[in-house]
Here is the input.
Amino acid sequence: MKIGMKAQIEMIGLVFVVVIIVMGIVLYAKFSSTAQNHAVKQEQGSSSFVTALGQTTTPCGVPVERLAASCIENDGQCQDACSQLQEVFNTITSNTLSKQGVKYNLSLEGKGVQSVDNCNSADPKVLTSPGGMIPVVLSNNGRGRITLYICR
Amino acid sequence: MMNDMRGNKGQLQTLEPILITIFLALIIGILLLVYVRINSSQQTTAVSTQRNQEDVATLARIATLPELKCSNAFENCIDEQKAKAFSFMMADAKSRIFYHAFFGDANISISAIGLDGNNEQIPLYYSLNSTNVKTTITYFTIYDPVTNTRRFATLMITRPT
Here is the structure.
């Protein structure tokens, strides 16, 4: 009798564990698909953001893409090109992404010109997507790039 | 005394299948509840994703409207003068009815960011009265043909949820 009762309790325990595992799998599947949709949306936003940013006319009279090239090459086309670029980054991000409560990292790679709000682009755990990127064409056929990362 | 113990044991043995049935029913009930919740949540997400894609597509189409797009070959560009004329035209209810087939129930506006600190709002289209709304944003440049400059701009579409 005691052995029969023990077996029943064990069976119930086993069923309970199976139910918990199944519920866990279902919940994981649900949340992972939601996160994927969110990442796709963010990537679209990042891409259109940097594309529009690259074409924006700066106070120097040239587009941001050209100002970035001037900053990298230090060609004197725009005075204090890197400072001007930093100012443009700050003005645009503070009027858009910051107001929307988005965590971001916008930078001209290799020159230390960046505008950041709680987003470390070196930490892949917090990034929602690869982000947006536009190439900066240099006069010596070299390339730089402006990148935008969006964080969770 | 002996009879009482046997009676209790008998009662327990009778209750066993009932308890197991109740336990299994509870588990099945919880599983069904979780399934229904997840199913409805997935449907809501699917509808939301589809609406979001429609909004993004609408915003992309706006830049291809001859009434708004830049007359030169710039991509992702809206002509500032055309946008202002379009906004003025939308003050007329007849115009809003005409464009309702294209935009549906929505409020669409442009917010141009001035690097000198002067930002500008241009309401493009409005036919929304609902308070439960969702906003989708995309980014464009707005071109001023007079000064031949392009400003960074956000294009917002607000729809009922």
